[in-house]
């Protein structure tokens, strides 16, 4: 449900009539109401996830219904359409959200903190105190830790309910409904020459969640609390590329294979960073069973991380990608497609078919659909145009053939053909139909794809992890 703020008219805002004070008191975590979105004139139905009292009134963290969580935001109480309030239907977990009266008002100076044009006017977040979790948590260096030690991660991200897998770079389970992990906790990340506004929660040490920005070494991904600490770190840090073997280089683009067991520090830091932009994954600290394929761009200062995908050393479900990410400054430029293409090149070398771990995010689905379509259409067109059968009839091309040629799992081939409307039931069997229209789609796609993976440049031999110690 969405409407324009203008159409509704600010005069209808309940703050204009006398019962505003009374109504705001009825707003609780879990309730729903119409809210004016921060960066537009749209008004959408939203769920209130958290409420803070500030010297200027209330701030509310809201999730817009049927929208991706990366649009969740802190809004001013004036953005609320209080006359549309619907009481909370589900029980808010005890202890997950601080009752309003327990929240300390935020100092005015803190509210005005801003770092660069990208920073939103967010209050410093004060999380409710939760029992500190058991072992294995990322740590700030001793000399970099804040003077007063605070409980570490305010939340153990590993879900307590039963899960199919309890180790891994990230699990597909645990699209957390916990109020705490539904709230973005890091305001800004500085990585190399970029500043990025995170999309989602990531379990960085709680000390860092109170800062206007956190600073990451772009080569080893160590997180630091200030630009000064980063400067000091950079004087010592000798690494100029991701750890592990460089297994591919074409012009200035490289891929490094990072073993999650041998390079635990890097792998964990990579997962923490990635979680800021991955919503539907839960972070674990056991990176041993994973390999991380990090794509980096080279210049005279070193290899700068662009994105990565992780892959289980041994996947019972034959997944060839666990998590995939392109850092926001590099998104929508074709790098996601390159990562996906690379993952299938690895599968081809392994002589296997593969598929990404489910569920896919909205952007993941778009990217995979686009890659699968382009790859399958390419094979169909190649097949149609290159057949030299010396007058013999062309043999039928099957779904299994397409799957073998591309390493795209059979089910994904079928769903792509269906989506492209190329899979038809004809005379009692399914046949693949290549239309003229699809040739135009193919030409358009070819024009769009600027860079591709060159398989000849891949220096990599698959390993049998079953025989090795993971
Ligand atoms: C298995 C899993 O891990 S699923 C999780 C996937 N990862 C995430 O969601 C993390 C956050 N998102 C990302 O990191 C990136 O958006 C990725 C990796 C999904 C895609 O990377 P990008 O470099 O942006 O993708 P790329 O530029 O190659 O585009 C690939 C296709 O997706 C489409 N696409 C990508 N982003 C968008 C967007 N924001 N809006 C619309 N279409 C988009 C592109 O148009 C393109 O399709 P086309 O060639 O038909 O035009």
TrEMBL record:
<dbReference type="InterPro" id="IPR050603">
    <property type="entry name" value="MYST_HAT"/>
</dbReference>
<dbReference type="GO" id="GO:0035267">
    <property type="term" value="C:NuA4 histone acetyltransferase complex"/>
</dbReference>
<dbReference type="InterPro" id="IPR002717">
    <property type="entry name" value="HAT_MYST-type"/>
</dbReference>
<keyword id="KW-0539">Nucleus</keyword>
<keyword id="KW-0863">Zinc-finger</keyword>
<dbReference type="InterPro" id="IPR040706">
    <property type="entry name" value="Zf-MYST"/>
</dbReference>
<feature type="active site" description="Proton donor/acceptor">
    <location>
        <position position="357"/>
    </location>
</feature>
<keyword id="KW-0862">Zinc</keyword>
<keyword id="KW-0804">Transcription</keyword>
<protein>
    <recommendedName>
        <fullName>histone acetyltransferase</fullName>
        <ecNumber>2.3.1.48</ecNumber>
    </recommendedName>
</protein>
<dbReference type="InterPro" id="IPR016197">
    <property type="entry name" value="Chromo-like_dom_sf"/>
</dbReference>
<dbReference type="Pfam" id="PF11717">
    <property type="entry name" value="Tudor-knot"/>
</dbReference>
<dbReference type="InterPro" id="IPR036388">
    <property type="entry name" value="WH-like_DNA-bd_sf"/>
</dbReference>
<keyword id="KW-0805">Transcription regulation</keyword>
<keyword id="KW-0479">Metal-binding</keyword>
<keyword id="KW-0808">Transferase</keyword>
<dbReference type="GO" id="GO:0005634">
    <property type="term" value="C:nucleus"/>
</dbReference>
<dbReference type="GO" id="GO:0046972">
    <property type="term" value="F:histone H4K16 acetyltransferase activity"/>
</dbReference>
<feature type="compositionally biased region" description="Polar residues">
    <location>
        <begin position="157"/>
        <end position="170"/>
    </location>
</feature>
<dbReference type="Pfam" id="PF01853">
    <property type="entry name" value="MOZ_SAS"/>
</dbReference>
<dbReference type="GO" id="GO:0008270">
    <property type="term" value="F:zinc ion binding"/>
</dbReference>
<feature type="region of interest" description="Disordered">
    <location>
        <begin position="124"/>
        <end position="174"/>
    </location>
</feature>
<dbReference type="Pfam" id="PF17772">
    <property type="entry name" value="zf-MYST"/>
</dbReference>
<dbReference type="GO" id="GO:0000724">
    <property type="term" value="P:double-strand break repair via homologous recombination"/>
</dbReference>
<dbReference type="GO" id="GO:0006355">
    <property type="term" value="P:regulation of DNA-templated transcription"/>
</dbReference>
<keyword id="KW-0012">Acyltransferase</keyword>
<dbReference type="InterPro" id="IPR025995">
    <property type="entry name" value="Tudor-knot"/>
</dbReference>
<dbReference type="InterPro" id="IPR016181">
    <property type="entry name" value="Acyl_CoA_acyltransferase"/>
</dbReference>
<keyword id="KW-0007">Acetylation</keyword>
<comment type="similarity">
    <text>Belongs to the MYST (SAS/MOZ) family.</text>
</comment>
<feature type="domain" description="MYST-type HAT">
    <location>
        <begin position="181"/>
        <end position="462"/>
    </location>
</feature>
């Amino acid at each position: 449900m969405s409407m324009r703020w203008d159409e509704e008219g600010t005069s209808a805002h309940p703050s204009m009539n006398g019962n505003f004070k009374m109504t705001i008191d009825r707003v609780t975590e879990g309730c729903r109401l119409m809210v004016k979105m921060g960066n537009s004139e749209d008004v959408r139905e939203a769920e209130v996830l958290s409420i803070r009292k500030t010297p200027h009134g209330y701030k509310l963290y809201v999730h817009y219904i049927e929208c991706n969580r990366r649009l969740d935001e802190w809004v001013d109480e004036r953005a609320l359409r209080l006359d549309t309030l619907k009481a909370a239907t589900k029980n808010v977990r005890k202890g997950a959200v601080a009752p309003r009266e327990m929240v300390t008002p935020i100092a005015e100076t803190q509210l005005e903190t801003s770092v660069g044009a990208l920073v939103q006017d967010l209050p410093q977040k004060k999380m409710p105190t939760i029992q500190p979790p058991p072992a294995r948590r990322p740590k700030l260096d001793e000399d970099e830790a804040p003077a007063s030690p605070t409980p570490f991660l305010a939340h153990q991200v590993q879900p307590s309910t039963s899960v199919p897998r309890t180790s891994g770079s990230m699990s597909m389970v645990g699209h957390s409904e916990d109020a705490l992990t539904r709230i973005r906790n890091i305001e800004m990340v500085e990585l190399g020459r970029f500043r990025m506004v995170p999309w989602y929660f990531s379990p960085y040490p709680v000390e860092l969640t109170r800062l206007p920005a956190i600073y990451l070494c772009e080569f080893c991904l160590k997180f630091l609390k200030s630009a000064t600490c980063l400067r000091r770190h950079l004087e010592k840090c000798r690494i100029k590329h991701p750890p592990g073997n460089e297994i591919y280089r074409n012009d200035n683009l490289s891929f490094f294979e990072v073993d999650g067991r041998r390079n635990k520090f890097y792998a964990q830091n990579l997962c923490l960073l990635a979680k800021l932009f991955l919503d539907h994954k839960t972070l674990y600290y056991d990176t041993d069973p994973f390999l991380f394929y990090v794509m980096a761009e080279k210049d005279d200062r070193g290899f700068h991380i662009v994105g990565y995908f992780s892959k289980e050393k041994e996947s019972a479900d034959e997944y060839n990608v666990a998590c995939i990410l392109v850092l926001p400054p590099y998104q929508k430029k074709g790098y996601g497609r390159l990562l996906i293409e690379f993952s299938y090149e690895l599968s081809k070398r392994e002589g296997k078919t593969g598929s990404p771990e489910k569920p896919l995010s909205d952007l993941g689905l778009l990217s995979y659909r686009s890659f699968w379509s382009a790859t399958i259409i390419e094979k169909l067109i190649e097949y149609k145009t290159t057949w030299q059968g010396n007058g013999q009839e062309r043999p039928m091309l099957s779904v299994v053939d397409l799957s073998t040629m591309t390493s795209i799992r059979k089910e994904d081939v079928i769903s792509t053909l269906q989506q492209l409307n190329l899979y038809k039931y004809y005379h009692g069997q399914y046949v693949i139909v290549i239309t003229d229209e699809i040739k135009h789609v193919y030409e358009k796609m070819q024009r769009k794809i600027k860079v591709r993976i060159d398989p000849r440049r891949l220096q990599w031999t698959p390993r049998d992890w079953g025989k090795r110690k993971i």
